Amino acid sequence: MMLCNEAYQYQQLDGQNDHMMTTMMMDLSQSPPPPSPSDNSSNNEEEPLEVVNMSGMALQSLPNPSLNLANICKLDLSNNHIKKIPESLAARLLNLIALDIHSNQIKSLPNSIGCLSKLKILNVSGNFLVSLPKTIQNCRSLEELNANFNELIGLPDSIGLELTNLRKLCVNSNKLIRLPTSITCLTSLRVLDARLNCLMILPEDLESLINLEILNVSQNFHYLTALPSSIGHLMNLLELDISYNKITVLPESIGCMRRLRKLSAEGNPLVSPPTEVMEQSLHAVREYLSQKMNGRLVNTSPKKKSWGFRKLVKYGTFNGRPRAWTSEEREGLIMPEYRPIDLLASTRFPAMCSPRRMFSPRTYFSR
């Protein structure tokens, strides 16, 4: 609270600079019309909230605006060259609902971001963040957090203890080795995207994510080698993507996921279920894992055709007794009136040795 109170002492520039910055910051197409004279008669009426759009303005630092920051509900600073968000600025955005600072050069977020108690949407993707401040757990109204394409090596251990309203967490394309255990406390979470990281393990108590519908942990490549058995207890899960990892065995509990409608597991050296089962359908995979779990697994591999000894015996090759050839078989296997090679190679018939004559119709051999 001391940090938030000190931020209110933020000094402002002179009137001329304030006027220029206000003109720059406000997106007039989205700002509400100026109040009418009749509105000024009511001193108790609250000021309207503003939408400020400064996206794509090649800003390297934030200006010092005269606009009352407490009146901003949406702030878009994306696609700039900003390297730092001042502590005092974040602490004054008391009514901010959505903050978009994606595609900048920010290396760290201010601790004062925890003062944004009304923040619902936070987009910090496409920066150089190595970590998120622990104070982010104070943003208890947060519903969507997008931190894709950064350099995160970890998330705050307590991130899931307070963000009970979080519905979407996207942390793909980072350097995460693990997800904190507290993430299983996000009971409102519906989408978890942690692909393209270095995840080596997933939390054990995933069944606590009772509302999770989409889970993507694909493309962690050789780091992720196994899935916890609790993954099959996500009864509301609709889509599961575990492709391009090093998983060899799917948990048998996946056979209980009756609401699952999409399973992507290509690019894994799977042994169980075998390849022939994975190539069939999601229903076949569920049935295989369910039977394996109940100890009723049958051989689902297709029967291989036998082309060896059995067929030879069928045709009497190794049955130990001679077999009479039919006239049809004789015509197909034995050339009628076949001439011995001694005759063709004799000196009396030198011209008969040419390949053309040897393999020509028998009219050439007529006497």
From TrEMBL:
One of its GO terms (cellular component) is cytoplasm. Keywords: Leucine-rich repeat, Repeat. It holds the Pfam family LRR_8. The keyword Repeat applies. It comes from the Eukaryota. Gene3D superfamilies: Ribonuclease Inhibitor. The keyword Repeat applies. PROSITE patterns: LRR. Residues 25-47 are annotated as: Disordered. InterPro entries: Leu-rich_rpt (IPR001611), Leu-rich_rpt_typical-subtyp (IPR003591), LRR_dom_sf (IPR032675), LRR_domain-containing (IPR050216). This is Uncharacterized protein. It comes from Thlaspi arvense. The lineage of its organism: Eukaryota, Viridiplantae, Streptophyta, Embryophyta, Tracheophyta.
